[in-house]
Amino acid sequence: MSAPDLPPVAAGGCHARDEMTQAARKAGVSELLDRYAADYPQGPHDKPQSMCPAFGSLRVGLRMKRVATVLSGSACCVYGLTFVSHFYGARRSVGYVPFNSESLVTGKLFEDIRDAVHELADPDRYDAVVVTNLCVPTASGVPLRLLPSEINGVRIVGIDVPGFGVPTHAEAKDVLAGAMLNYARKEAEAGPVAAPEGGVSDRPTVTLLGEMFPADPMIIGQMLAPMGLAAGPVVPCREWRELYAALDCGAVAAIHPFYTAAVREFEAAGRPVLGSAPVGHAGTAAWLAAIGEAFGLSAEAVAAAQNAVLPAIRGALAASPVAGRITVSGYEGSELLVARLLIESGAEVPYVGTACAKSPWSAADAEWLEAHGARGKFRSSLEDDCAAMEGLEPDLAIGTTPVVQKAKERGTPSLYFTNLISARPLMGPAGAGSLATVVNAAMGNRARMGKMRAFFEGVGTGDTAGIWEGAPNIREDYRATNLKKLEKKARAAKAEEMI
Ligand code: SF4
After folding, report:
1. Distances in Å between the alpha carbon of 268 and those of 18, 111, 174, 360?
2. How far is the CA of 406 from the centre of ligand 1 (A)?
3. What is the DSSP letter of 394?
4. Cα separation, 183 vs 154, whole angstroms
5. Which residue, judged by its Cα, is nearest atom 2 of ligand 1?
6. CA geometry: angle at 311 spanning 305 and 316, to 5°?
7. pLDDT (tens digit per residue) in 326-365
8. What is the tens place of the pLDDT at every residue in 374-427?
9. How far apart are CA 289 and CA 466, in angstroms?
10. Residue 111 half-sphere exposure, CB side, CA atoms within 13 Å?
11. In the beta sheet, which residues pair with residue 378?
């Protein structure tokens, strides 16, 4: 469907944030937008700077067993989202309910979505069907809340994940995790619920909030054992029944600090929530103490758990030192934890940027980092992260794709946060030395980066960008005329501002 076929709001997209917001408010979704504004405070970057936020919730749904996902949005958005999800190995179909200007404005789109969920709701195949409104249906007020909450025993969960209300794909994970926990909490309150496939623990559990490297929950479980506790499910969960077990915990560890809606559900269930994570020596000691406090355990029990792991962590950190200046930035929510680990390994980390907002669950990490010379920037923009990388001249820049790309152009060694840092354990003794190998190897590449930079100097930039069969036909006279036009336009804009 091309943009001219659509009503004005539908012709927008990632770059029509204000128009979309206005349209959504007119369409009666102010309450939702206000809640998102409170849950995910915005600024300085107020529009997606990375991939579409809905990818976060889409991926959470696609990774769950017996859960079907359906998107409702512009074809181009759905194309991008399905492409990325299959690129990341979804191996699952993504349902799509298309629309045109007529079905959008007449309400037929909602009927089509309702028909689609009725068709999909097969209890032999699914526990739940998740329907997601992307930007245009949200801005048009397509009322997913009016879908039946259950069909043939299959739960129907409708969420709105607009780019103009949910700032990052990390927070979109929370939108779906929160909606599912809300549903599961009400089910548990109404009567007995099923146990997860893997059974339930006979010890009190700590639910872990945030997607981690697969070994991390096991390592956390080992650290909790001396206190008579066990690691509970990881939220976002992998099957519906795990949601009940997650709610049925003694405390919640907000390992990733942006799960505001999920925390709301745990608090409604009466569970205490604690921040930070067991990373490095200081982080693990403080986290185990906080767990002990949440469960009302004795000082001896906490000391036993600490003594069981802290010497090994100290040893691992000492055995794998990191020397050099490193800037860290990303959008996963674990940036502060990674920075802590690097500092404890011996690195100088002057800047930590995270696309996530400040929250009570990252406060202790931010304080610790500041006391150790790191300036933390919440909701950092791509411009902030690049400026830090350029201005601080690090030996290594850890960041998102565009930051890494810019660093490479400058000959600065760099590592992708998502692919290379998040793919390693961070917690306890296993995490203590895990970053050193990859980080030190990257820093050792500076001379090679310099050689590559010298080799490619001037290629692909300015007049040499693109493919040319001969020398570029540079017309200085055109450039001068164009420059004059731009200056005139800027002067006119300035004059208008002054009126
Ligand atoms: S749904 Fe995602 S890709 Fe589409 S306009 Fe919104 S933010 Fe952009």
Report:
1. 34, 33, 16, 17
2. 25
3. -
4. 12
5. 52
6. 125
7. 999 999 999 999 999 999 999 999 999 999 999 999 999 9
8. 999 999 999 999 999 999 999 999 999 999 999 998 999 999 998 888 889 999
9. 58
10. 7
11. 354
Question: Rounded to the nearest whole angstrom, what is the distance from the C-alpha of residue 359 to the centroid of ligand 1?
Answer: 25
For ligand 1, say whether the CB of 283 is within 6 Å of any of its atoms: no
pTM value? Answer: 0.88
d(CA 327, CA 134): 34
| Residue with token string 């889409």 | 58
d(CA 96, CA 108): 15
CA 376 – CA 412 distance, rounded (Å): 21
DSSP class per residue in 26-43: HTT-HHHHHHHHHHS---
Q: Phi and psi at residue 101, in whole multiples of 5°? A: -60, -35
**Amino acid letter for position 207:** T
Residue 102 Cα to ligand 1 middle (Å) = 20
> Of ligand 1's atoms, which has the minimum distance to the CA of residue 73?
1
Name the residue at shortest CA distance from atom 5 of ligand 1.
Answer: 13
Amino acid at the residue 21? T
Is 135 near ligand 1, meaning CB less than 6 Å away? yes
- Closest Cα to atom 4, ligand 1: which residue? 77
In the chain the domains, ranked by start, together with CATH numbers, are 3-167 (3.40.50.1980), 205-313 (3.40.50.1980), 320-455 (3.40.50.1980)
Distance from the alpha carbon of residue 77 to the mean position of ligand 1, in angstroms: 6
Handedness of CA 111, 116, 119, 125 (dihedral sign): negative
User: Does residue 413's CB lie within 6 angstroms of at least one atom of ligand 1?
Assistant: no
Q: Is 250 in the pocket of ligand 1 (CB under 6 A)?
A: no
Q: How many of the other CB atoms lie within 10 Å of CB of 220?
A: 27
Tokens of 348: 């100088």
> What spacing in Å lies between the alpha carbon of 95 and ligand 1's midpoint?
17
Burial of 281 (0-12, 13-18, 19+ CB in 10 A): buried
Burial (CB < 10 A; 0-12, 13-18, 19+), residue 78, is: buried
How many angstroms does the Cα of residue 311 sit away from the middle of ligand 1? Answer: 48
Report in angstroms the alpha-carbon separations of 198 from 68, 242, 459.
Answer: 21, 9, 56
Q: Check if the beta carbon of residue 322 is closer than 8 Å to that of residue 436.
A: yes
